[in-house]
Amino acid sequence: MVTYTEISPSEFFYRNRDLAGFTNPARALYMAVRELVENSLDATELAGSLPEIYVRIIPESNANDSPDPRAYRLSVSDNGPGVEPNQVPSAFGKVFYGSKYILRQSRGMFGLGGTMTILYGQITTNKPVRITTSQDGKTKYSFEMLIDIAENKPVVLRRDSSDAGGQTGTRVDLTLEGDYLRASQKITDYFRQTALVASYANLTFVDPQGQITFFERATTSMPVAPKETLPHPYGIDVEAFKRIVKSSEEDNLEDFMVKHFHRVGERIASKFLAFAGIDGSLSPNRLSNQQVVSIVDALQRYPDFLQPDASCLSPVGEEILQVGINKELQPEFSTVVARPPSSYSGFPFLVEVGLAYGAKTLQPGMKLFRFANRIPLLYDESSDVSFKLLNEEIDWKRYHVPQDAPVAIITHIASTKIPYKTVGKEYIADRPEIERELRNAIREALRRLSIYLSRKGNMEAVQRKMNIYGKYLPLIARFATDLAGHKRTPHYRKLIGEEGGEVEVVAEGIEEAPNPEPGSEGQQVIGIEQSKIEDYR
Amino acid sequence: MVTYTEISPSEFFYRNRDLAGFTNPARALYMAVRELVENSLDATELAGSLPEIYVRIIPESNANDSPDPRAYRLSVSDNGPGVEPNQVPSAFGKVFYGSKYILRQSRGMFGLGGTMTILYGQITTNKPVRITTSQDGKTKYSFEMLIDIAENKPVVLRRDSSDAGGQTGTRVDLTLEGDYLRASQKITDYFRQTALVASYANLTFVDPQGQITFFERATTSMPVAPKETLPHPYGIDVEAFKRIVKSSEEDNLEDFMVKHFHRVGERIASKFLAFAGIDGSLSPNRLSNQQVVSIVDALQRYPDFLQPDASCLSPVGEEILQVGINKELQPEFSTVVARPPSSYSGFPFLVEVGLAYGAKTLQPGMKLFRFANRIPLLYDESSDVSFKLLNEEIDWKRYHVPQDAPVAIITHIASTKIPYKTVGKEYIADRPEIERELRNAIREALRRLSIYLSRKGNMEAVQRKMNIYGKYLPLIARFATDLAGHKRTPHYRKLIGEEGGEVEVVAEGIEEAPNPEPGSEGQQVIGIEQSKIEDYR
Question: Is the pTM of this model over 0.80?
Answer without folding.
Answer: no
